[in-house]
Every structure is written in structure tokens, then in C-alpha cells.
Amino acid sequence: MPNSTNKKLIRQLLICAIFVIMLTSIGSCVVLYFTVKAENQVRYAGIMNLVSAKVSTTIRSMEVSAMNVFDELGKHMTSPDDVTSALNQKTLLNPDVSGYFAAFKPDYFPEKGKWFEPYIHQTDSNTKFVLSQVGSASHDYTRSSWYTRAHEIKESFWSDPYYYYDGTSLSGNYCTFVMPVTDATGEIACVCGADMTFTWITRELERIDREVKHDDMRSLYLLDEDDEFYSVILNRDGSCIAHPLEKMLPIKEANIYDDLREGRTGMGKVMINGSAYAVYYGPVEHVDWSVAIVVPYYNTLGYYLWPILSVLGIAALSIGILCIFYRRAKEE
Fold first, then answer.
1. Is 173 helix (H, G, I), strand (E, B) or coil?
2. Is residue 1 pLDDT above 50, yes or no?
3. Where are the alpha helices (DSSP H) in 92-197?
4. Model confidence, pTM
């Protein structure tokens, strides 16, 4: 009778122990899930902020280079020849710029007529720069949005992305850094611009991605070397300005689109070619762009999977040991 009572007690204790282990395991898995989820958000949001800062630094560097050209032009506005000479002298200092222009207000130089817009730009071969006069009745730049905006806000800005086509290899997608330049009277004499291709922006983004993936910041954010995230630069309308080859980020989600338009930071889940991706995005200083870090969902699942499997493995091992103990106690 006592032996039967002991076995019954052991069985009850075993059931209680298994229940406690299972309850503890489930609780631990839930805690781990939310902990790792928060850690993932911090990890990739940190990477996004790092990429955004590097993109901002690159863009700012380009702005400073263009401003140097425009400031030099502002010192030589006594004649059209002085203007074109100033553009020629400074252009070669930054070959990454595809072209510089100076769109003067109508009749600023009477001998040049109503439209005077010298434009020094790369040739089709991209080996040298040539100077052209592009202002004309058919190209009335005074009606262009960048020209009128420069006169309205009286400060520099980046244009919205646009597509340029002339039948040569120069055709493509561009963004332009625009800056109004004043003369000795303090009035705006011309609106200058530095044209940048999406190709250059993409090349810079790829360089930044390599830096982020291989420098010391990788250990700071606990990244594995085989992390498959990539970066894209998005315009405020959700269109891609720069992205790796054959890797884009189509925005269909209304909440992400609204965040991009308002320049907000956020995260979301998107589908790309039938696969799920996590997206972490935020604004870039100096421009109306956003940077997004795109991470395959299976990449993020790895951070969840191993801790949870470890907890479940320990729970299963503990239950197995208890079952062995119970079987031996039952046989005695």
C-alpha cells in the first residue's frame, strides 16, 4: 500500500513538473520572441541610421563641391566670357558631376539676348566636358519649376528626380542640385545647377553598403557576415532613386508611402517577387529622400529561431530525464 501511494505521488509530482516546465518554456519563448523582435528593430534601425548618415555626408560633400563652382562663377559675372571661363576652370575638379549650368535672368547680358544658359557637360564618351548654350525659345528655362522655385525660396535645394533623353548614352535618370547666385547688387542674377546621375548615386550607395557590412560597425550591431540586407534610396513618392542591380523596393503599402512622403522613420513588411521582406526606413538630411534597409524575412527569423529552439530543447531534455526517472522509480 505505501509503495502504491509513493508511485501515485511520484506520478503527480512528475505531471506537475512537466506542467511547470512546459509553462516556463512557453513563457520563455514568448519573452524571447518579443526581446529578439525589439533587438532586431534596434539592429536594423541602427544600420539604417548609419547608412542614412553616410548618404547625407556624401550628398553634402557633393553640395559643397558644387557651391565652390557657383561661388567662383558669382565672382566673374562681368561678362558672358568670364562666366563661361569660370565654369570651365572649376568643372574638372569634380568629374562625378555630369554637368553644370547657369541660367541667367532674361536679358542679364543684353548681347546674349533673352535666354543665356551656358551648360558645360560630359560628352557621350564621358572623357571630356564641352560647353553649350542651351537657353532658347524652345527651352525657356524661366518657366521651369527649378528656376521659379529658386527665385521663390532664395536658397539651394535638390530637384525632384527626372528622366533626360537626347538619344545618346547621356540619356538617363538625374537629380540636380540647384542654387540661386546673386551679383554685386545682391539680386539673383542666375540659377545654377549641378546634374547628378542615378548611376553615380547607385555607385555611392553600393560603396556605403560595403563599408557598413565590413567595417567595425558590423560587430556593434551583431551582424553575421552572411546577412543579406541591402539598401535603397527612395524619393518621397516611393520611387527608387538608387538600388542594387536587380534589387528594388516597390512600395504598395499606404502607411509606408505616407511615412516616406512626410519624411518619417518607420518599419514594415513588404512582398517582393512573392517573398516577404522587412523594411526599415528613415529620412536623409539635406534632401527629400529616405533610406530603406531591406531584409529577407527568413534572415530575421534566424535570430528568433535559435534562442527559441534552445529553450524548447532544454525543456524536452528535462521532460525526458523526468520520464526516465519516473520509469525507474516505477520499476523498483
1. strand
2. no
3. 145-153
4. 0.75
